[in-house]
UniProtKB/TrEMBL annotation:
Organism taxonomic ancestry: Bacteria, Pseudomonadati, Pseudomonadota, Alphaproteobacteria, Hyphomicrobiales
Provenance organism: Bradyrhizobium quebecense
Residue span(s) of domain Histidine phosphotransferase ChpT C-terminal: 91-210
Cited InterPro entries: ChpT_C (IPR018762), HATPase_C_sf (IPR036890)
TM helices/strands, residue ranges: none
Coiled-coil intervals, chain numbering: none
Name of the protein in its database record: Histidine phosphotransferase
Length: 217
């Protein structure tokens, strides 16, 4: 052969693999706060000094709150969240998004109206927020605006923060052009693409000066 062909997209996971990878992703999100709860309980078991006991109880409270917020978010973003064809209140999605994403580094500005949307569109929005968060690794603000109205509404997220960037691996996965196998680290943008396709949309990332625009259209 006179040349070398470029690798094509990696093999897409089948239904069983996709389910397993999403479960791994959820477990990964929960390991840290649950582990912190265990550590706090171990401190309490050791008959600590009053100041250590207060520290342990504070750690347990904060970690339990974080674990609960992540579970609620993941249930909606990755789970069934109602029967086939169900609609989800954007107000509920806002509460779950704020509980999961606003962590002291990232803040949300939510400019969407409160109405019911088909669940796949709401799941798409939440997964777009996860991707948007990755474009501002040092924190910042995410501003969510509607595109269109009613049940066909789509979304535009403006991510602003120090060293905002467009991760090429995420772009490749959203375009189904990645040559890497989809694993637990890559399954979230892959799943976002599947949700967008189910809604007849495509998710794009664009660098606009020092900001990143994540849009579904």
């Amino acid at each position: 052969m006179s040349g070398t062909s470029s690798p094509g997209p990696g093999p897409a996971p089948d239904a069983l693999e996709l389910a397993a990878l999403l479960c791994s992703r959820v477990c990964h999100d929960l390991i840290s706060p649950v582990g912190a709860i265990v550590n706090g309980l171990e401190v309490l078991d050791d008959n600590p000094k009053p100041e250590d006991r207060d520290f342990a109880l504070d750690l347990i409270r904060k970690s339990a709150k974080t674990a609960s917020a992540r579970l609620q978010f993941c249930r909606l973003a990755f789970g069934a969240a109602g029967s086939s064809g169900a609609q989800i209140d954007l107000g509920d999605a806002q509460n779950m998004a704020k509980g999961h994403i606003e962590d002291g580094k990232v803040t949300l500005t939510w400019n969407l109206p409160r109405l019911l949307l088909p669940k796949n569109r709401v799941k798409l929005l939440l997964n777009m927020l996860v991707i948007a968060q990755q474009t501002i690794p040092r924190g910042g603000t995410l501003t969510i605006d509607p595109v269109g109205e009613g049940e066909t509404m789509s979304f535009r997220i403006l991510a602003a923060g120090l060293n905002a960037r467009v991760p090429q691996n995420i772009v490749d996965l959203l375009n189904a052009s990645s040559s890497n196998t989809v694993d637990a680290h890559a399954v979230q943008p892959h799943y976002t693409r599947l949700l967008a396709e189910a809604c007849g949309l495509k998710v794009t990332l664009t660098l606009d000066g020092d900001k990143v625009i994540i849009a579904a259209s």
